[in-house]
Each structure stands twice: as structure tokens, then as C-alpha cells.
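Bug report

Summary: C-alpha cells for Methylated-DNA--protein-cysteine methyltransferase differ between web form and batch submission.
Environment: batch mode, default settings.
Steps: 1) Submit the sequence below via batch. 2) Compare with the web form result.

Sequence submitted:
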Amino acid sequence: MSVRHTVVDSPVGELTLVADGDALIGLYFDGHQRKPRLDGFGPRDDRGFGDVTRQLGEYFAGSRTEFDLPLAPRGSEFELKVWGLLTTIPHGETRTYGQLAAELGDPGAAQAVGNANGWNPISIVVPCHRVIGASGGLTGYAGGVDRKRFLLALEEPPADEDGRLF
């Protein structure tokens, strides 16, 4: 099979899904701030994206906390390591760039981790939105900080009627 794409609506705007064979290789926002590193998205073909659109729908409805999709992001060895770490950040939690750098064994690599995070080609599914600055602030996001804020709020644990977290 060859590279193909589709466009779907979501609560954060249109999303372009890109696949190569059965594997998702890209998920981009309308107005994505980093130009995808692909030679193109291939022809539009709405077939074969059913699992992705179903799981995204469940995620936005609050009933899915993990994605179970074949992924094949394209990047450097370092980027692939960083993106792999992103998939281990649990739903509803965040990590700092420094924490991820330390997990990679190089605490001084926070800036390199941030750069790799920014090039993540499979937004939402590979949850780069769960990475925040050392001060706890929301730093840049290829989909824009408003989308990052929305996704993090969507993942906040529920509170009971007294405001306590379960």
C-alpha cells in the first residue's frame, strides 16, 4: 500500500490522518505549526481509517484513555525514543521535558527532548500534549497552546461533588 490520508472533524478542529499501509504515520491539526516531514499525504482515501476515527471519537467522548493502533512514525533514532516515552505517560498525567530527558539517561537533554516533542508526527495518539515546562506552564504545542489546554482539561481526573478527586 502507499501513503494516503483523510480529514476528519473533531472538537479541536479538522484533523488530517495519514497512513502507510495499516499504520498511522501522521495526525496533524489544521494550521499545524510544524510542517510535516512527509513528501506529501498521498491521495485522499477515506477507507481504512475506521479504527483511528472510532478511537479518536471515544477519546474525545471521555471513554478511551489509551490508543491501540499500529503506528509507524518517521524520525531520527532520538526522536523515536522520545516519542516512545510519550506513549508511556498515563492519561491524566503530565511530565516535564527534564523528566523525560532524565528517563532517557541524559538530564541535560531537556531542550533536545522539547525539540523532538515538537516534531511528533502523530499528535494526540502519541500524547506530546502531556509534556509541560519545568515550572508547570504550558509551553509551545504544534497544534497551539489552546488545543493543548483543551486536551489536558479533557484528560483531567473526575472530581466528586465536593471537588475531591476520586
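Above is the batch result. After comparison, the two runs are identical; trailing whitespace caused the diff. The mean pLDDT is 91. DSSP finds five helices and five strands in the chain.
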